[in-house]
Write a structure and sequence with these properties.
heterodimer; A: 169 residues; alpha+beta; Sulfite Oxidase, Chain A, domain 2; five-stranded antiparallel sheet; 27% helix; globular; B: 307 residues; mainly alpha; 12 helices; 73% helix
Chain lengths: 169, 307
């Protein structure tokens, strides 16, 4: 059943992706660019890249992850977008994602993760914007509390904070 | 067997058994502890300490670049480096990841001091002026003051990282495991010895009983020989008037009932049988005669040559 749901989500994502590839034009960011997506994408708004400011991300379908993490006290509420919605918006075609942080730390995020789990590309922590000093402005968060199998060092390595770029491979 | 000794041995056995159980439990606890220790080694928070040090170096680099080429781009880069460096210290101060670093002696104070100086660092970094060499010196001096505590933190964390593999810890764990094993062996040996002694004393008792029985049988044998060796007929009855023993001479004297004279047979039955088979000639009816005959025989002190 769960597998079926995932397949449906994946199919819906593909359909949406196919539709958006031609139709949707990304708005050009007016504020500071907080996230840049490069690689195999159909929709661009800044040269070959898709650039987002916070408003641009907030305009995408909203997702919320509530979880504890090894770097925070208690449970943290994180608002953001699901990678699949983000990738659909930029008309991404490709398997995995490479997430690159401001300090050049990088991690590969497999496409399966984005379909199997509600991973959030979060831009709000406990309802507020995150500064660079507070590991913002963007943080990839896995719902660790909801899935015991995610409580591993491997997952922690994929929870990139101070995210700057995503390369679609 | 002295009863006190038995009780003492029983206490000893109970104590040895308790010691064995305790040693087993201790051994299990130590093994569990070992597993936890080795697993914990995977998260000693070293990399966040190293990251802080790394970001400190990159900030110093960005400051030097801005001093060499004071462009807006380099200034922006430098201030972003400050933000990144800034972000690394609170991670050590809070959250599970930094816990192991915080546990190190003196670390919480050191981290708090470093965090406390961050606003001052921000002030000097935002205040550096192109033509003011003094402002750069002040910024470099403050930035430099982070170097030693960061080094200390990284070295301590690295030292602590190999904790599960450290020689001292392994030696200590090994000692405890040995103590538990020796205790198990010792208490096991005591238990075995006590049980063996118990078994030996049981064996000795059995041996004694066997000897006593053999002796009794010898005595009986001699008694029979003695009875057989006398020339007269001899029969011994118990209190209930049953045959205990009779010699062959007795059977020869009363051939008609020879087959009946066996231990356990009532003497009155012998008399009855004897009368019925015509051993005696008498005018009395068998009942009367036998009552008279057998009554006189209850008293061993009244010997007679009649049955």
């Amino acid at each position: 059943m769960r597998r079926l749901v995932h397949t449906c989500i994946a199919l819906a994502g593909l359909l949406f992706l196919a539709g958006s590839a031609q139709a949707e034009a990304l708005p050009v960011p007016a504020g500071d660019v907080v996230l840049r997506i490069a690689g195999n994408i159909a929709n661009q708004n800044d040269g070959a890249d898709a650039a987002f400011d916070l408003d641009g991300l907030a305009a995408l379908p909203h997702a919320q992850v509530v979880t504890s993490t090894p770097w925070t006290e208690g449970r943290t509420v994180l608002d953001g977008v699901l990678p699949r919605d983000l990738l659909a918006a930029v008309g991404a075609t490709g398997g995995s994602l490479r997430a690159i942080a401001i300090n050049d730390h990088a991690a590969d995020i497999p496409a399966e993760d984005a379909t199997a789990y509600d991973v959030a590309v979060a831009y709000h922590k406990n309802g507020e914007q995150m500064s660079v000093r507070d590991r913002g402005p963007i943080w990839i968060v896995y719902p660790m509390d909801d899935h015991a199998e995610l409580k591993t060092p491997e997952t922690e390595a994929k929870m990139v904070w101070q995210l700057r770029d995503i390369a679609v491979q | 067997m002295i009863p006190g000794l038995r009780a003492r041995e029983r206490y000893l056995a109970a104590a040895a058994f308790a010691a064995l159980l305790i040693a087993c439990a201790f051994l299990l606890f130590r093994l569990y502890d070992e597993r936890q220790e080795v697993l914990a080694d995977f998260r000693r928070g070293t990399w966040i300490a190293v990251q802080a040090q790394n970001e400190h170096l990159r900030l110093a680099e960005a400051l030097a670049r801005y001093e060499a080429e004071p462009s807006a781009e380099n200034r922006r880069e430098m201030l972003q480096r400050l933000d990144i460096f800034w972000s690394r210290l609170p991670i050590i101060a809070e959250g599970r990841e930094g816990e192991s670093v915080r546990r190190l002696p003196g670390m919480p104070e050191l981290i708090a001091q470093m965090i406390g100086r961050l606003p001052a660092l921000e002030t000097v970094l935002t205040g550096v002026e192109q033509n003011d060499a003094g402002s750069f010196i002040a910024a470099r001096t403050l930035l430099e003051s982070y170097r030693a505590p960061l080094n200390t933190m990284v070295i301590e964390a690295l030292h602590n990282e190999g904790y599960a593999q450290s020689r001292d810890r392994i030696e200590q764990q090994y000692t405890w495991l040995m103590v538990a094993l020796v205790a198990m062996l010792g208490s096991g040996a005591v238990l075995v010895l006590v049980l063996r002694r118990e078994a030996q004393s049981a064996q000795a008792n059995y041996e004694k009983a066997r000897l006593a029985e053999a002796e009794a049988s010898d005595v009986k044998e001699r008694l029979i020989d003695a009875i057989e060796s006398i020339s007269e007929g001899f029969i011994l009855l118990d209190d209930a008037g049953r045959v205990l023993i009779a010699n062959n001479r007795y059977r020869e004297l009363y051939p008609t009932i020879a087959d009946l004279v066996e231990p356990g047979v009532a003497f009155s039955d012998l008399v009855w049988a004897s009368a019925a088979l015509g051993q005696y000639e008498t005018e009395l009816p068998v009942e009367r005669w036998s009552m008279t005959a057998s009554s006189g025989w209850r008293i061993p002190a009244a010997p007679s040559n009649r049955p």
